[in-house]
Design a protein that fits this description.
heterodimer, A: 3 domains, 7 helices, extended, B: mainly alpha, two-stranded antiparallel ribbon, 20 helices
Chain lengths: 165, 477
């Protein structure tokens, strides 16, 4: 079952990424990225890390994607990348691709003599994480609330309507 | 002693900030000044708590919140800074059409972030404190919403600040990968114990330095400073030039104080900081020579001062560093209040040309500004002289002679542009009609207090040094 799910997710993930690259319309690309991110979340779930799986979907497919869509809304969809930049893109892209390939090979080699995997049972357990948040990391957790309210107040001041003079 | 009472100074500030944001809704536009007074009230209460806790040694959250004397001294410096900033903002905000009541709330939030930063030895907490400070700063920089420069400042600060935060958090993650802890003393013990180079640890440390380098505006991470300082509302600029710097240096002191003595790997970082310090002093001062805008001059001067303070870190002279920051607080806020004093409804006088003849036209502003500029340049009998003297002499004792020579030469360069403002004020005929709004009692109070501070610290530094020595001694534990 796990193997079947893994291959299903892999195929969908690779297809989604290909779709993202190939599609001409940036909005479609964004939707394909959501699909790819969701599949990655599925991989984490298969690896017994439910918390990371959910976070992956909420943050990447949810929050980050909203950001992308806003950017797409603001730029002109039909214009595409400026031509003078296009010359360099393939060179850069192939360079980065080679680096990634080397990384992937190294990672695959490492995978056969893995590091310490004994903690993988507890790493993504939500109740453990919650427990830690309210005991050991209570202080950082509370500071985060100040951080969020500061960001909210700051953002609201900067965008609120000007008062009528 | 592990007790929740340790939370009081920070909680007071956060409560004040929330109360101000709440009251802002109910207050009429003409009465926004009251919020400033409420802020000052909460700041004074928090300051009184800090003084009361001086000998208590409270801590909470397993030492993540640590009110040692070092933290408390920095609390007091920062609270004083924010009190001054609040007072000089009272009239400025309505004059420049930026009277959002939340301004004072954001200032208090920024202060709480700085307090969180300096009162912890845990990188995670320090990072969150830094983010609270940064979030508030980004909004403060863009408060003049109908001014393009202010929006530019906010966006620049936000983008580069996020970049710096990313570096910092990546560095912390790498350090965690190397040491399995975010606690500064554990990390430093690791560096002491390690005999060979640990690549992950060193990279992490370098990224942490880059992250803080952005915040304290060290060359070559200073690019954002002049534009942000110029675009932000002037009291906010004064705040940027002191608050985040003091907090950043406090954290750097906590990191580097145990670092120099034994650590095998400290050599590399010593050289890195040496280069950063030289670059900061030289570039800051040289570029300041060409500026025509007083706010930009002060921005570059604050970059240069960060270079002098780095010399203190290299020399391991912690009490000299804290003394420098204390003096810098008075002289820089003083200089900025003088700049703020030269403004009227909807207009600020910031060009060097505007300052011609000011010394005779507005003798009080001219005279006090002159004293602050002398202090920034490092003339006796002001505090600025003693501060530089302490730092450079302890650096000579440590054998850092080339560094001191460069530092002294750089501060000689700085004399030129500080004196140029004075020359404009006293030796040029007024060319422009500079009509200012002069009824501003709070601002003149701050001018007077800063003048008092600069001269007191220059003539009788003994009292404050006594407390600074106590504060710095707390670093050793």
């Amino acid at each position: 079952m796990a193997y079947f799910l893994f291959f299903l997710l892999s195929v969908v993930c690779v297809a989604a990424v290909l779709g993202m690259i190939i599609s001409k319309n940036q909005a479609y690309s964004a939707l394909f990225v959501i699909l790819a991110f969701t599949c990655t979340g599925g991989f984490f779930a298969l690896l017994d890390a439910p918390f990371i799986a959910v976070i992956q979907i909420i943050i990447y497919a949810g929050a980050i994607m909203v950001l992308f869509i806003f950017v797409i809304m603001m730029v002109d969809v039909h214009k595409g990348i400026a031509p003078e930049k296009k010359k360099w893109t393939p060179v850069f892209a192939s360079g980065i691709a080679v680096v990634l390939l080397i990384e992937l090979i190294i990672a695959l080699k490492m995978a056969f003599n893995p590091l310490n995997t004994s903690s993988s049972q507890t790493i993504g357990n939500p109740s453990d994480l919650g427990h830690l948040l309210f005991t050991k990391y209570l202080y950082p957790f509370e500071i985060t609330s100040i951080l969020i309210i500061t960001a909210l107040v700051g953002a609201i001041i900067l965008v609120k309507k000007k008062e009528k003079e | 002693m592990n007790t929740y009472i340790a939370l009081y100074p920070i909680l007071t500030i956060v409560t004040g900030a929330l109360l101000i944001i709440l009251l802002e809704v109910f207050l009429k536009k003409e009465k926004k000044d009251y919020l400033g007074f409420i802020a000052v009230l909460f700041l004074l209460v928090s300051g009184a708590e800090c003084i009361k806790f001086w000998n208590k040694g409270f801590s909470y959250f397993e030492g993540n919140l640590l009110l040692d004397k070092f933290a408390l001294f920095f609390f007091l410096i920062m609270i004083l800074t924010v009190i001054f900033i609040t007072l000089i903002s009272l009239k400025y905000l309505s004059l420049q059409n930026t009277d959002h009541g939340e301004y004072y709330g954001l200032l208090l939030f920024a202060l709480s972030g700085m307090m969180i930063m300096v009162s912890s030895r845990d990188f995670l907490v320090i990072f969150l404190g830094l983010e609270v400070l940064s979030m508030a700063s980004y909004a403060l920089a863009g408060l003049k919403r109908n001014d393009e420069r202010s929006s530019e400042a906010a966006i620049k600060y936000f983008l580069l600040g996020s970049f710096a935060s990313a570096f910092l958090v990546f560095g912390i993650a790498l350090l965690y990968g190397a040491v399995f802890s975010t606690d500064i003393s554990t990390i430093m013990n690791f560096f002491h114990a390690e005999t060979s180079l640990s690549l992950m640890g060193l990279t992490g440390m370098a990224f942490v330095i880059i992250g803080f380098g952005f915040k304290i505006a060290v060359v070559p991470f200073h690019m954002w400073t002049p534009d942000v300082y110029q675009g932000s509302p002037t009291p906010v600029t004064a705040f940027f030039s002191i608050g985040p710097k003091a907090a950043g240096f406090a954290v750097l002191m906590r990191i580097f104080f145990p670092f120099w003595k034994e650590a095998v790997n400290s050599e590399i970082f010593f050289h890195i900081l040496w280069i950063l310090s030289v670059l900061t002093m030289v570039v800051g001062n040289l570029v300041a020579l060409r500026q025509k805008n007083v706010k930009r001059i002060l921005a570059y001067s604050s970059i240069a001062h960060a270079g002098y303070i780095l010399v203190a870190i290299l020399a391991g002279d912690n009490s000299g560093l804290v003394f420098y920051l204390t003096v810098y607080l008075f002289m820089n806020i003083g200089a900025f209040s003088a700049v703020i004093a030269l403004s009227r409804k909807g207009k600020e006088f910031l060009e060097l040309e505007d300052y011609s003849g000011i010394g005779f036209r507005y003798p009080w502003i001219g005279a006090t500004f002159t004293v602050f500029l002398f202090s920034l340049a490092g003339f006796p009998p002001t505090g600025g002289f003693l501060a530089k003297f302490y730092i450079f002499s302890s650096a000579v004792h440590k054998g850092l002679v080339p560094l001191v020579i460069i530092g002294v030469l750089a501060s000689l360069i700085s004399v030129f542009y500080y004196l140029r403002i004075i020359i404009y004020m006293y030796m040029r005929k007024p060319t422009r009609n500079v009509e200012i709004f002069s009824y501003n009692p709070a601002l003149f109070l701050v001018l007077f207090l800063c003048l008092y501070g600069v001269l007191m610290l220059g003539i009788f530094p003994g009292n404050i040094l006594f407390y600074i020595k106590q504060a710095v001694a707390a670093l050793a534990f």
